[in-house]
Design brief:
By secondary structure, the protein is of the alpha+beta class. The protein has a single domain, classed as Gcn5-related N-acetyltransferase (GNAT) (Aminopeptidase, 3-Layer(aba) Sandwich). The protein is about 35% helix and about 30% strand. It is built from six helices and seven strands, in the order βαααββαβαβαββ. It has a seven-stranded mixed sheet with strand order 1-2-3-4-5-7-6. Helix 1 crosses helix 3 and helix 5 crosses helix 6. It starts with 9 loop residues before the first strand and ends with a strand. The model has no long low-confidence stretch (mean pLDDT about 95). InterPro entries: Acyl_CoA_acyltransferase, GNAT_dom.
Amino acid sequence: MAGDLGDGVITWRRVGEADFALLREWLRRPHVARWWNHDTSPEAVRRDFGPAARGEEPSEDLLALLDGRPVGLVQRCRLADYPDYLAELSAIAAVPDGAFTIDYLIGDPALTGRGLGSRLLADVVRRTWDDHPDAAAILVPVPAANRASWRALEKAGLRRVGEGDLEPDNPDVGPAHYVYRIDRPA
């Protein structure tokens, strides 16, 4: 597979327990582990992804599929549902009422750097407006060192609205973050 991945059809579904082995595999890959720094034991994946998969917490873990093949993960939540995170983010960027946030990864390193990330981000933004009519904006903090990630956000239409220190997922990458935002279209 060479070149841009602009022609495939993107679909989404909620992550289920049957997907945990795939998530563990993705989280172990160096290109993901550098930024997510997640315990990949079966117990940790069950602990961290299970409540959303069972509908026991307000966040949504969405599996991104390209032509039916799982390619990535997006975690989406309303910031107000996580007050500590909202307070931390509010210290470096204005957060409107009704704001959401997302986190994301592409599982296969062979699929990175080919336009898929920005396509997935633009699509999940559109779907957030449809799925959550009260969503006013989407804010996304990203480590300043993760140039590929913040460039994908920019290509998906988000703009940088803040920068400052946040607790990083991986202490090795440092606390410097950029915050990106997109507002619901009028």
